[in-house]
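User: Run a structure prediction on this.
Assistant: Running it now.
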Amino acid sequence: MADQISGEKPVGVNRFALQCSIVASIVAIIFGYDTGVMSGAMVFIEEDLKTNEVQIEVLTGILNLCALVGSLLAGRTSDMIGRRYTIILASILFMLGSILMGWGPNYPVLLTGRCTAGVGVGFALMVAPVYSAEIATASHRGLLASLPHLCTSLGILLGYLVNYFFSKLPMHIGWRLMLGIAAVPSLVLAFGILKMPESPRWLIMQGRLKEGKEILELVSNSPEEAELRYQEIKLAAGIDAKCEDDVVKMENKKTHGEGVWKELILRPTPAVRRVLLTAIGIHFFQHATGIEAVLLYGPKIFKKAGITTKDKLFLVTIGVGVMKTTFIFTATFLLDKIGRRKLLLTSIGGMIVALTMLGFGLTMAQNSGGKLVWALFLSIVSAYTFVAFFSVGLGPITWVYSTEVFPLKLRAQGASLGVAVNRLTNASISMSFLSLSRAITTGGAFFLFGGVAVVAWNFFFFLMPETRGKSLEEIETLFQRDGDKVRVEKGAA
């Protein structure tokens, strides 16, 4: 492996690679902020613009439906113009969407702004983890590739805090400021991202070998490691190992992602089919287990549990953001030590217990009209526990795992397909949760999510191989071992 040259112990994370990942992940802060701030803004939008419950569900979920479009476009776009310029494009779309939402004279304009930002979300959710994974060494890829999800959580927490403080402003000004100020960091990021290097793997796929190798030397811990990574990437890209570094015109090898969908969907090999199933599965279960219901509808859920004042609702919701951020931060250090598989199964197991407790607590609270203090307490603790277990495993691992399992040529567009499923599932939950709660009660909805989590645990137990400590090129072989059988490794090599 590139991280273990001549049996030496892997050294610390490369600072330049860390800095690049942090900058790339800032786009996720903006997305997270939009998610968090909308949970509070919708309370005032409903009152100010006289919207009904269906309009609120559409406004909440439209971001993810438009992100579905953005994610499907992002893979081919990033293969054509590079990972870095795709991040810039995402920032510009965020900025335009935030300006429209901050203006928001009526519901149609607000919806248009939300949709524009949603397309940016689709681009950001695909490209930031891919970029981080492609510049990271194998021993620290879990840390770097999980940074976008950590930044998303920081953004959600920031949105909750802004909700609390801006809720004291006049109603027609408060929610517009909540949504509009995201345009400022979007603009700053669009310019700041120009100082970042391009992904070395993308450069090498374009035949720009010299540039790719120079960047690998910057993001690796030694010249030997950079050389080994360079040779592995050339091999994965189908480039002759004898090609010289200054050979930059390789039209027969240069690729902008042509033919990838055919290899992914129409005629995949058995190994690619298993990769696709696992990647799509992890994206589906990330949201099908109900996290978006708590993040977006926290104030409404806690109101049903017995909290009535807006200040207390927003304060309790801030606690959700604190738990999410704290445990994702913890997960960034555990991913490369414990491994993806063990952490994910532990995470989902805890979620099953927490969702069952939350369903019970909310059922008892609603049946008593919100008068049972212990039911309120159980609901809050269970919601926090659910968010904690999600954030320490399923949350960040989804983005790490789905970007590292695809072969080099298929990575960008394969990851974009996973993000499309992610956003479609997210939209389905966010646009139907209120209706689902009316149909089977809020408590019943969380019992349902608990059942989905049981299915998820079994899915990953049987289908998910461990990838910790392996280079991206080595991971390509994980789904090809033992003939047509998936080799589920219990630990890293």
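The CA atoms of residues 306 and 369 lie 7 Å apart.
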